[in-house]
Amino acid sequence: MPVPVPQQRSFPAAETSHGDLTLLVIEDDPAGTTITVPELSAAAGTRVRIRTARNLTEAARLLTDDVDCILLDLALPLTGGGTGPGTPTADAGTSGTGTADSGSLPEPVSERAGELAALTHVLGIAPQHAVLALTAQDDTELAAEAVRVGAQDYLFRGELDARVLSRAIRYAVERKRADTAQHQLTESRLRAQENARLERGLLPTPLLDGSGLSFAARYRPGRSRALLGGDFYDVVRTPDGTVHAMIGDVCGHGPDEAALGVELRIAWRALTLAGLCGDELLSTLQQVLEHERQSEEIFATLCTVDIAPDGRRAGLCLAGHPAPLLARQGLPARLLPYQDGGPALGLLPRARWPRRQVELGGAWSLMMYTDGLIEGRVGTGGSERLGQDGMVAMVNSRLEQGLAGEELLEAAVAEVRELNGGELTDDVAVLLLGRDPERIRRWGGSAPRSHPASSVAGRPLGVQRPPL
User: String of b and e for 277-307 (b: at least 16 CB within 10 Å)?
Assistant: First the structure.
C-alpha cells in the first residue's frame, strides 16, 4: 500500500542566519506525539522547514537534495511502517536488536550495533547530510556511540526546546560541511602526492651524457584531468654511442592509464639498455601492455627513434603515433615519412613495425610529440583542428623568428593553447633533440652535462617538469 506523504510543517528558527533550512525528522509516530517539535518566535526571521517520515522507506523517498539535516529517533523500530525498498528488516529471533539484512545494513560497528542499526542505515543512504541522533535522556552511552558511528551530534528528548534544536541543527550542518571540506583537502593532498609519483615515472631524467645532443621537453596536462594522463617519454644513450628516444600515449586518462604509461616507459628503457630495438622491442612492449592493461580495449601509440653515434642518421619506428618533425639548418621543418608505420600497441596480436632509415644531416632539430599538440581547435568557431600541417606551419614560423630549444617548445605550446581559446582538453607531451656541430666542437666533442642558466631545480639541461 502506498505510504501517504505527510504534510510539510515549517517554523521560524532563532539564531539562524544562512537562509532557510530543511529538517527531515524520522520518527515512528506521524502525529508527532513521540517528538514534539517546539514552536519558535516568528521574529527570528529565517525559517526551518520540517518533513516527517515514519519509517526508513518513507525517509529515503523524502531525502532530497534540499534537506540540510536529519533528526533520527534512535528508538525507531526497524520494521515499523511495513517493508519496502531501502527498509531493513530485523530477524524474528533477535527481537529487532540483531543483525539486519546484509543487503540493507553494513556489518555491526559496535557492541550496541543493533540499537544503532537505523542510524547506520541512514548514514548509508545520506552520506552528504548532517545527522542528529535523538535518544532518551538516561542513555548517554548510546548517544555518544551514535556520534562515534557517524552522527554529527545528539539530543535528549527532555531537552528538545526551541533554542537547543535550532542551535543543534546549525551546528550539525556546519560540522558536516567542515568534515566534508577536510575530507576533500585530504584527498587533494593524496592526489598531489600521487601526481608527483606518476610524474617521476612518466617524465624521467634523460640519459644523454657524452652524446653531444641538446634536449628540451614540455608536458602540460589537459584541463579535464586531476591526474596525469597516459603520455610518457624517455631518452637514453647506450654504450655503443647510439641515442634512443621514445614518446608514447596510452589511450584514456586517469591513474590506471598513467600507471600503464609508467610501466611501458620503464620496460622500454630496460629493453633498450639490454640491446633491443625496432620490431623486436615493440613486439615485447606489446606483450607487456597485453599483460598489464585493465581491458582489452586499452592500446598505446608509440614513436621510437635511434640516432646513430655520428648523429647523422636515425632509425624510425611508428606504432600508430604521429611522425616526428625534422628541421635541418637552413631548411624548413618537415614531417618524417610515416607511410611504413605499424598499428598501435595492443590492437593486433601479431603486428609488425618496420624500422625506416632516415637521414638527419649535420645540424638538425627533431621534435617528437603526442597528439594533444595537434588536436587543439583553431578558428573563431572552433570547428577545425590544428592538425599536423598546421603544426608544421606554426613551427616554421617560430623557426623564422630565430627560436630554438626550450624557447621554441614554450612558444609552440603557448600558441596551440591560444589558438584553442584556452586550456587543451588532452595532455600534451613534446620533446626536442638537436645536434649542432659548432656547439659540439666548442665542448670538445660532447655537450656539457649541465648549465647553471638552464638547469631547473638541479635537473639536467633543458628538462622542465610540469607544475603539480
Answer: bbeebbbbbbebbeeebeeeebbbbbbbbbb
Q: Tell me what pLDDT residue 228 has.
A: 62
- Give Cβ neighbours of residue 236 (< 8 Å, ≥ 6 apart): 206, 207, 208, 243, 244, 269, 272, 273
What is the rounded distance in angstroms from the CA atom of residue 424 to the CA atom of residue 130? 39
d(CA 374, CA 366): 16
Q: What are phi and psi of 43, to 5 degrees?
A: -80, -5
Phi-psi group of 311: left, alpha or beta (phi > 0 → left; psi -120 to 50 → alpha; rest → beta): left
Q: What is the dihedral of CA 268, 274, 275, 279, to 10 degrees?
A: -40
The DSSP bridge partners found for residue 154 are 133
Burial of 425 (0-12, 13-18, 19+ CB in 10 A): middle
Burial string for 344-375 (b: 16+ CB within 10 Å, else e) reads bbbeeeebebebbebebeebbbbbbbbbbbbb
Range with the lowest mean pLDDT among 14-18, 280-284, 341-345? 14-18
- 366: which DSSP letter? E
- Tell me which residue of 132, 140, 133, 137 sits closest to 159, measured CA to CA: 137
What's the rounded Cα separation, in Å, for the pair 200 and 36? 61
| DSSP state letters, 52-96 | EESSHHHHHHH--TT--EEEEETT--TTTT---TT-----GGGTT
CA dihedral in degrees (32, 33, 36, 42; nearest 10)?
A: 60
Which is it for the CA torsion 117, 72, 139, 173, positive or negative?
positive
Enumerate residues 6+ apart whose C-beta is below 8 A from 194. 227, 255
CA–CA distance, 382 with 374 (Å, rounded to integer): 14
Across 72-86, 145-159, 368-382, least confident range: 72-86
In our burial notation (b when 16+ CB lie closer than 10 A, e otherwise), range 258-267 reads bbbbbbbbeb
- The 3-state DSSP composition of the chain as helix, strand, coil percent (nearest 5) reads 30, 25, 45
Show the cell assigned to 100.
539486519
Please state which of the ranges 63-67, 304-308, 440-444 shows the lowest mean pLDDT: 440-444
Phi, psi of 122 (to 5 degrees): -65, -40
341 or 193, which is more confident: 341
For residue 26, list its beta bridge partners.
53, 72
Instruction: Give the closest residue to 11 by CA, choosing from 43, 59, 53, 58.
Output: 43
Residue 306 β-bridge partners = 244, 315
- Tell me the angle at which helices 387-400 and 405-420 cross, rounded to the nearest 10 degrees: 130
Task: Round to whole Å and give the CA distance between 19 and 68.
Answer: 11
Q: Residues 6 or more apart from 122 whose CB is under 8 A from it?
A: 26, 56, 59, 70, 72, 131
Mean pLDDT of 318-332: 93
